[in-house]
Amino acid sequence: MPIIVKKFGGSSVGNIQLIKGIAHKIASLAQEGESIVLVVSAMAKTTDELFRLAFEISDHPSRRELDMLLTAGERISMSLLSLALHNEGLSSISFTGSQSGIMTDAMHGNARILDVNAFRIREELAKGKIVIVAGFQGVSPEKEITTLGRGGSDTSAVALASYLHAESCEIFTDVAGVYTADPRLVKTARKLDCIDYETMLALAYSGSKVLHPRAVEFACKYNIPVEIKSSFTFETGTLLDTRRNLINKGFLMEERIISAIAHKDGLARYQLKADDALQTALSTWNNEIFKYYLQDETLELVIENKFASEIDHLIRTQNLQLIKRLEGSAFITLVGLGINLDPGFLAEAMLICKPYQIQRISHSDKTLELMLPSTQLEACLNALHQAFIGVSQ
Ligand code: ADP
Ligand code: ASP
Ligand code: MG
After folding, report:
1. With a threshold of 0.85, does the pTM exceed it?
2. Which of 157, 228, 320, 393 would be 39's cystine partner, CB 3.0–4.6 Å?
3. What is the mean predicted confidence (pLDDT) over 180-209?
C-alpha cells in the first residue's frame, strides 16, 4: 500500500482549533488503500518557551536534560492530533521519535539520524491506523533521547519518507511554499512553483527557515521529492526535486542569475584567539555555528544570540581568549547558479548596497553573502530583491 508522509509545523498546530481543522482535512482526504504517516512539530512557541524555562535555571543547561525537556513539546501536539483524529472517526496512534525507531548519534541538541527502524510504524499502518510521529527527536545508541536541531521536524519527515519508501512527502507550513525571499520581510516576494535541491540547500544553510537544512540534505541524498505547501489552504505549493526531474515534469526552470535571497538575523560575532584551547573546545562544540572565518591568529565565530550565555560559559571555563564580541549582525545571501560566471554582478550588488554598511562580502560557487548590521537588514534585503528579482507577477 502506498505510504504518504505529511508534516505539520508549529504554527500549523498552534492551537486546538487548528489541530481540529487539520484532523478534519485529513479525514476528508484519507483514501482507501493509502497509508498515512503524520509528523508534527510542537505547538507554536512551545519549544521557545521550554528553552526559556531551562535558561531561567541555568546559563548552560545540561544538553541531555534540555533534550528531555524540549521533546515534551512534540509529545503534546502528537497526542492532541491523535485525539482530534479519533473525533473524526479515524483510527490513529501517536509515537515519540524513539518509539518510531528514529536512531540518531549521541550529539544532544543537534543529533544526526543514523537509521530508522520503523517496524512499529509499519505494524500500525498494516492495522489500518494513521500513525502520528513526534518530529525533531530520536534516540541515541545509548538509549538517550536526542533532538535534531531547531526546525528539525522537517528532517524527521523526510527521513521517514525515505526509510518507508513513501510515495510522497509533503511539508505543510504557514506560508504557501518557498518564496523568492521571506514573504514576511519582502512583500513582493513570489512563490516558486519548483526549486532544485542545490538552490534549496544553499537557501536553507543561509537561514531560510522554511526547510531545515538537514531535511534538504536527506531529500537530495536519497532523491526524495518534497512538496512545501500551506497547512491553511492545502493548495499546490513548491516542489523540491532534482533539476532534471523538475524539467522532465514540465516545470519551467527560471534562469535568472538570482533564484532567491535568504537572510539570517540575531547573530553575534565572537573573535577568538585561534590557539590550542580553542581547537580543543571546537572538537566537542555542540552549538550551531552559522559561519566562521579564520584570519591570521583570529577565528571569528558567527553564532545566534540565543546561545550567548552558553558561549560565554564556554569562554570562561575553557580558557578561550576573547578578542572582541560584536552584537547585532545579520546576513543576506543571494543564491543563484550563475553568480560566479558574471563579474558585473558583484559590481551591481555593491552599487545597490552603497547606502548600507556592508561589513563583509564573501562568495561560494552559487552564493554571494553580505554581512551587515541587523538594523539595515530589511531595507537592504528589499532593495536587492527589487533589483535582482523584481516585483510579483
Ligand atoms: P514551521 O513551523 O511550519 O516549520 P517555520 O517557521 O519553520 O515553519 O518556517 C516557515 C517560515 O519560514 C515562514 O513563516 C517564513 O517566514 C519563513 N521563510 C524564510 N524564508 C522563506 C522563503 N524563502 N520562503 C518561504 N518562507 C520563508
Ligand atoms: N519544535 C522544534 C522547534 O521549534 C522543531 C520544529 O519545529 O521543527 O525547533
Ligand atoms: Mg520549521
Report:
1. yes
2. 157
3. 96
The domain limits of the chain are 3-248, 260-388
- Write down the CATH number for the domain with range 260-388: 3.30.2130.10
Class in CATH terms, 3-248: alpha beta
Dig out the grid coordinates for 196 from the structure: 532544485
**pLDDT, tens digit (0-9, with 9 covering 90-100), for 106-150:** 999 999 999 999 999 999 999 999 999 999 999 999 999 999 999
Q: Which ligand 2 atom sits closest to the C-alpha of 148?
A: 5
- All three cell numbers of 81, joined, read 492530533
CA atoms of 286 and 309, how far apart (whole Å): 14
Cβ neighbors of 388 (< 8 A, separation 6 or more) are: 256, 257, 258, 261, 334
Distance in Å, CA 352 to ligand 2 centroid: 35
- CB distance 47 to ligand 2 below 6 Å: yes
Q: Are 153 and 40 in contact (CB under 8 A)?
A: yes
Cell (9 digits) for 19:
489541530
Pocket test for ligand 2, best of 133, 136, 154, 307 (most atoms within 8 A of CB): 136
**64 CB burial (10 A radius; 0-12, 13-18, 19+):** middle
Q: What is the pLDDT of residues 319-357, one digit of tens each?
A: 999 999 999 999 999 999 777 777 788 899 999 999 999
Q: Can you tell me which atom of ligand 2 is nearest the CA of 154? A: 8
Q: How many CB atoms within 10 Å of residue 20? A: 17
Q: List pocket residues of ligand 1, CB cut-off 6 Å.
A: 9-12, 41, 151, 173-175, 178-179, 181-184, 208-210, 260
